[in-house]
Amino acid sequence: MDKVLEFQNVSLTWPDFVMKDITFSLDRGYIMGLVGYNGAGKTTLFRLMENQYKKYNGTILIDGFDCRTQEAKVKDITAFISDEQKFFFEENAITNAKLFSPYYSTWDMNLFQNYLDRFEIRSTTKIKDYSRGTYLKFQLAFAIAHHPLLYAMDEPTAGLDPVFRYDFLRIIQGIIADENASILISTHNTSDLDKIADYITMLENGSVLFSKDVESLSDEVQNNKNERMRFQVSSLFKKGRWN
Amino acid sequence: MRLSKYINLDINYRKSLINTDFKNLGIGCVGMFLFSSFLLNWSFHSMDHMVVFSIYLVCFTIAQAFYIYPLILVYEGGYSSVFQKYKNVPIDKRLFFRSKLILLTRFSLLFCIPVELFHLWGLDRTDTPYLSIVGFWPVITMALTLLAQYIYIRILARNFME
């Protein structure tokens, strides 16, 4: 199958944190949930994809492009969605789009405007006046407008109410259907993943505990083949098919 | 994307800022101050060399800062580096950085040329030879302030350029 994201033996050593031999991949058109306790290395994984940390071993490929050596190409085909203030907060949505869009190879301003309307985001409001949920929707509209192959979302639904989370999940399922893109999403709200994820990758102390499709993971847990995995999965997924 | 495109995008970005008029006014004020200094120099026929040099140094630093800061700093409650805003954007980081330096250098040269001409005219009225260090003070000051600004921009972009 066509792999959009590949982590190949990625290792990273810091004085207080070690990431060991991270290997997993994500196929085109699928959603992968990234789970793990605080400090497991989820955000570090996203930072590695963003090329914020360069001193690591192994290779990270996005659609075959190396995150370390082909950074511009990788960022052209990837949408990073997080809480970070990476837009001009004193400007409105349209100004932000005008400032950033010339750098993208496949930017579609009409599509951006359509999604702003669809998400009911006022394009004249400054970004700093958006609520948390609106900022997330704005980021999604911005991301969709440049047709990325991969959406990398670092805890996008943290601190959002259940109704908004439901809406958000519906939107990203729509993205998969319309755009044939892939999504890597980290979250602590694992009940969300229960609804949308095709694959689950679990990190524990800087290494991959497992990376499996949900059906086989569900079977393994139900059949009690792996006690440690069952304990970890059960403790993370309080409700859902794994209990 | 070519360097010229990056330069044009930077110029458009600067124009899109609401407070550009204030920055231009600042540059104008510095220019007027310098011109007044020349008039004073002309009226009294002499001015202490170190005073002139210090005036150049201060004026060049302020004028360059008025020009370049909108391109490298963004105000969001406090000032932060504009480079951080572009870390997830598909840009050639070296060209992006270079375009800002080129714009700064271009502005400094445009600012320096009239100052140098006035300076040489002023030298004519004191008995200082043209071909001396004093004769090239505006150019020397421009080079020094450019270096200082370059170091500052480099520090601002250190995480971005790594």
A few lines on this structure:
The complex is a heterodimer of chains A (243) and B (162). Chain A contains nine helices and ten strands.
Outline the structure in words.
The complex is a heterodimer of chains A (243) and B (162). Chain A is of the alpha/beta class and 243 residues long. In chain A, helix 4 runs antiparallel to helix 5. Chain A has helices at residues 42-49, 71-77, 93-100, 109-118, 132-145, 162-179, 190-196, 214-222, 227-236; strands spanning 3-13, 18-27, 31-35, 57-62, 65-66, 78-81, 150-154, 182-186, 199-204, 207-213. Chain A has a single domain, classed as Rossmann fold. Chain B has 162 residues and is mostly helical. Chain B has one domain (3-161). Chain B has helices spanning 3-16, 20-44, 49-72, 93-125, 137-156, 158-161; strands at residues 73-76, 78-81. In chain B, helix 1 (3-16) packs across helix 4 (93-125), helix 2 (20-44) runs antiparallel to helix 3 and helix 3 (49-72) runs antiparallel to helix 4 (93-125). The radius of gyration of chain B is 18 Å and the shape is elongated. The model of chain B has no long low-confidence stretch (mean pLDDT 84). The chains are: A alpha/beta (243), B mainly alpha (162). Chain A binds chain B through residues 50, 52, 54, 71-76, 80, 85-90, 95, 98-100, 102-105, 128, and chain B through 1, 5, 9, 13, 16, 74-76, 84-93, 159, 162.
